[in-house]
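Repro case for the chain-ordering regression, as requested:
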Amino acid sequence: MSKNIKKPRFALMPWLAGQVTSRGPALCIIAAFILITLMCAYQMRLLKDENDILAFLPEGNPEVDLFYNINNEFGGLDMALVGIESPDIFTPDFLRRLDKTSKELREIIGLNSVMSLSNVIDYEADEEQGGVTMGPLLSSIPTSQEEALAFKEKALSRDHLIGNLVSEDGNAIVIYCYLAYKSDPNIISAKIKDIVNKNFPNEAKYWGGQPFISSYVYQVTQNDLHNLIPWALLAIVAILIISFRDAFGSLLVLGTTGMGVIITFGLMATFNAPYNIVISAMPIVLFAIGSAYSTHFISRYYNYVTKMDKDAAIIKAMKTVGPIVIASGLTTMVGLGSFIFMDITPLRSFGIYTALGIFASLVLSVTFVPAVLHLGNFRRHTSSDSPLQRKLMVELCVFARRFRKPLIATMAVVTAVGIFFAAKVDVSADQSSFFAKGSLPDLADEFMQKNFGGAGFVQLLVNGPMDDPTVIREMRALGDKVMEIPDVTSAVYIGSVLSQSNDAMSGYSRVPDNPAQAKLLYAFFQGDPTVGQMINSKHTRALMQIRVQSLNSERQNEVLKEIEKLTAGMNGQYAVYKNDTERSKSYLYDMTAKHIAALSREYGATAKPLADIRASIAAPFALPTEKVVERLADFMTSAECAVPLETSGEVNNKSVAAVIGTLGDTYTPEALEAKVKEALGEERFAEMGEDLYLSIETPLAEYWRLAKAEVVTERLLNDKVIVLAASAKGQRLPKQLTMTAMDLTTESVLMPYHEGDNVAAGSLINLDASVSGLPVMYRGLSRSVAANQVKSLVFALSGVFLILTIIFGSFTSGLLATFPTLLTLLFVYGAMGFLNIRLDIGTSMLASIILGMGVDYAVHLTAAWYAPEKEPIIKCAANAADQAGPSIWTNAIMIFCGFFVLTLGQAVPLKNVGGLTAAAMLVAALVTFFVIPMLSRRHVYYEASHSEDEALPSEAVNNVLSKLVENQAHTR
Amino acid sequence: MKMQNLIRSLLCSSLMLTATVPALADERGDKALQELDKSMTAAPKQYFIFDLITKDPGKEPKKFTYKVYLKGSDSRRIEFLEPGDQRGFKVLLTGDLMYTYLPAFNKVRRVAGHVRDQGFMGTAYSYDEISIVVYSPVFEGKFISETDKTITVEATRRPGKEGAFRFPKLVFVLDKTHHQPLEIAYYNEQGEKVKTETRSQYECKGAFCNPKLMKMVDHGRNNVESLMIRKEWIPNPQIDEDLFTVRSLQKR
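-- result from build under test --
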């Protein structure tokens, strides 16, 4: 024997063997394990189900944390989208069903609110009596096609609805459903689907948003596991029974593994670890791997018990195979235990508890199993031997040893090819990590892409005082720049909501002028989840939702970088300046001109260069007094005027307006009061003067600003600085231009603060913007996955190598036993690179699982490597294959079948993990049968496994070796 | 099966059937609703100051303070006192018309029509629930049960009144002494209880009674809770008629 071979290091085994072969301790062991199993089975009732896909987000990753915190604060993850596509949307029947659906959805307990084309609130100026008419956009269900078409015209004239609630062509709509805080997405999604399917049985429907995605992924995976796990376990059991050919042995193995599974779930329940979709796959892993330990032990026992009494056979089996089984179990535990370094809780939980399950199976195999064997008198009546299988194994190993040099060269080439393809593995997690092309969430994505300008949202978070309209305008400027990036289709932010509400409350569709107005307008939206998605409750943070066309991840990252660049340009210190200096006026002209250019692009108009727009809006003009007088006269007859004037008589609305109009656009309150007195006369003034003055004071100032802005717009159009598009939307641009031009007369402006500037106390503002959203979250996720992979793999490899070095007593032997699994990993990564399978949450689990499971084969083959010193090493290969080969292949086929079944489902993560693990196990076995014989240089690596009686060559070994000798003689 | 068990099963089935049959109005139930309406409108004019506190799970509580002037059943004027952002915001409701005075805009705005069944400024109340004063024109009552102190009435929305109130069924627990609700349960079309309102700490001044505390819990929104605490109450105050006009709204 080689001097390097150390004595067995498992002194525990003889002691344990002594215990399990004594009746008392054996009974105690059996009773204790049965009791523990029963307790754990009872505990299992407390197992909590976790179905939240967000649990798979890594912890402590700044990009993922930002995404999660933003969406938690702004409620983005609580929004379910129902898309409906139909050419008949604007028909009485469809609208009636939409209205019914919206009402029924609202009644779902757990839904905070529902918004659709039928119930969205609409404002319209009341031209006759003044003020505004407010109500649902669909105030009554059309009874004729003419009424339905009139509604279509109205809906498609609302710019803020197009691309959000209805597609531009009017053939698709979206219903937004906002879930209440902590509602169950699975339950609510199912209820929403029931109602929508009932009311729209024949239309094409799409289910998007986090609640639907989460419930889809959960259900598909659960369905797959529910349907496939029994088949996977059946396959494992069938292979076990076929290979074992012994009912009692099979039952003992299955029973022991089952106890291991129950104990594991019991521990999970005790430690409050939730049951999730990854944990669902744990029984397959435990049955596939955990059963191997008992199998090895019972097989060896059956071999010995034919030659000696049962207790001697148990003791001998424990001494010879026990340490190898323990080493093999420990390496698997290390592989799975390496998940502890992952920052994704469900994966970490899977690793920890599967490792515990392996440990339980391992302990049961060296305690419970021998104790049961001791108490019974079990012998195998039929041989499990398959001469052909043994012969094939032996031939394979002998072949690898004989042709080791060309095979080493081939291995080098295969390794190089593996490295080449492994280097191409894309580490990028995105939604395809969770669902496949053609799945319901993917179809919803396509629907949003086709009809609503994309489903990918980049979120731009701005920290700053959002009560200040100057900050909102700065956000608008940033949005305008973002919209210039190709592939960005929209940028929605709180400014649009403020403009709409300002339109309703003051008649001007623009961001209000001062913080007091903004604060008051915000108050109307308290509790509105649509607005809650744009601004937080304290108005200190706002979110811009930037819609990006669905792109490949490369282009998406480019867009992201461009947005990040613009965002970085916005960060800094600003101050609110009075709009009374050349600098502030110039800044305002620049800002307004840029927004006008952006509006022109949005409304399809043709615009001259920015400098021309700026020159046009900055040019002086004559006061538009006539318009102001006309508007004031109309106002003074409206219901909003506290003292409506007559339209006829000596003193009427027009005469009063004409007198007041002579004031011009700049006047003091006293001057206005004097003009009112002049217009009304002493007597009337005494009767109604104060009320009229109070009524017209604000409208008059607004009419001047409006009229001046209209002059700016007219000049832009008349001078063809801007040429309108012919479309209906294009014709709505002038109103937007006028609203923007009113900004030129605002009282204050936000500008970058220059050191030494004289600004009012408290007017300094820090703006800080950061980019988030799904693309950023996926980028963070990818980084986490890559880091997890490196950390867990390094730990697993080091741990496995250390254990093998200890068990085989040398560094090189440890390396030899580790090497086949390294090549298997290379194969797996190479295959992933070749097949374009990304390294994502699911596939990042593979390396450690494969390492933990695959290394078993090398351990068993290396431990079985033996021949007397005088014999050639080729005989070691033959003996090792003969002794360990059948069980290695049985286990590889068992795992292959168990995991291959998972590829038959729909869940993408299961398919990837199942397929690659199944293939990897066969490769691991094959590589082991080549690499160990190719690289071995000793006659034995683990002495304790071998004894004189085992040294006798088997029939298969004799056949193969004698045939080899014959061939060699014949060749000579 | 024993005869006793069979009878018990049949009885249970009958009870379940009764429970699913819509309640039919009866004289006693209708009378209780009319008495409730009478009690609610007993004072021709009223003046209140309320604190309205809303606790939305996952969010910070929100508080409004406002005063209300009531005249009859269809004129009311509301003035916000707190928070500071909304101080001076006034609303005048007359029938279906609403006039608002927004101090930051310094002008009156006429708002025709409104959305009754939407949430009221993020509270658990909707405009419907906050503005309904009389029930019997919209609901018909059915007597359910009574105790020494209370009577329970099921109110079903009258046919053709679907637009007048969102919920088709309310269940009132009314105090027999002052004919006002101690609890109102709001049921949706599916028969699920979606809101519960409790009114407590009743105080009576002469012939007029009013609760000091009203609490609405919206079960559909994960039990968002709004607490309306009455800080001041004057039945039949000396209020100038002019208070319910547009010109008074714009007065600073």
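Ordering looks correct now. DSSP finds 34 helices and 14 strands in chain A.
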